[in-house]
Specification:
The chain has 279 residues and is an alpha/beta fold. It has helices at residues 2-53, 85-97, 105-114, 133-145, 166-174, 195-213, 229-238, 271-276, and strands at 60-61, 66-67, 69-72, 101-102, 116-117, 122-128, 149-153, 178-182, 219-221, 242-248, 251-252, 260-264. The protein has 2 domains: 1-53; 62-276, Glycoside hydrolase/deacetylase (TIM Barrel). The strands form 3 sheets. Strands 3, 4, 6, 7, 8, 9, 10 and 12 form an 8-stranded parallel β-sheet that branches. A two-stranded antiparallel sheet has the order 1-5. The longest helix is centred in the first third of the chain and has 52 residues, at 2-53. It is globular.
Amino acid sequence: MFLRGFKHLIRFSLLTLLIAGLSGCRGQSTAKNVTSTSQSQSKTVKSLKKAKKSPYAGWHHVKTVKLPILMYHSISSGNALKVPASEFKAQMTYLKQQHYRTLTTTQAVYALSHHRLPQAKVVWVTLDDSYTDNKTAAWPILKANHQHATINFITGFATHHNHLTLADARQMKASGAIDFQSHTVRHLDLNELTDQQQLTELTNSKRWLDQHLHQNTAVICYPAGRANQATIKAAKQAGYQYALSTAPGIATSQEPAYNLTRQRVTPGMSLATFATLLH
């Protein structure tokens, strides 16, 4: 009897241990499944957050991008290249009231190269020659309206009187209302230079902006607005993606990337005339 009872006890103990082992395996398997599910959900959430952070998430595809590029120089008065601050303010206010989105250079390049736009009404505001009044007159207006503009910077003039300094450029860029692209080193008519001189002007100005403003300068604005085949070749070799001319017209994604047209804003222009530059 005693042996029979002892055998039953051993069997019961072994059965208990077996059940406990199986339960432990199930628990570990369940824990692994829960952990795996949790990690998968975490990855999904991170992916969604990453998608939401994409700066072009809401942009839509269009067959041909039409982008009016406004061309300003000095925001003051005195000659045909100077638009008074009062007129510039009225024009920027008009753009805001008409719901135009003022693109950054990065956004403009993306729009033209990917055939995508954030909305129907867009405009790219550019100011050539990096005059000091771009900071004292234009910048405050742009900041107040939550708008953006691109200043085409003459890198060799950063220490010249009446031109923006490197410190000015850094301060303005940090505000988010301004970005800076190249207008060469010395603002010479590129057509009158040798091929090597052109390449030097384009390369050195881009390198200066890239190093001092910590960016990848994507656009060259030709001084005098002219470019020959050597200029275009040099612009490509220097690493620019697009180039701005002074030829009139609405820029499109169908026209040559290294000869984008722009719309010149002149002093004394009525708002009705200004509005025609956008269509």
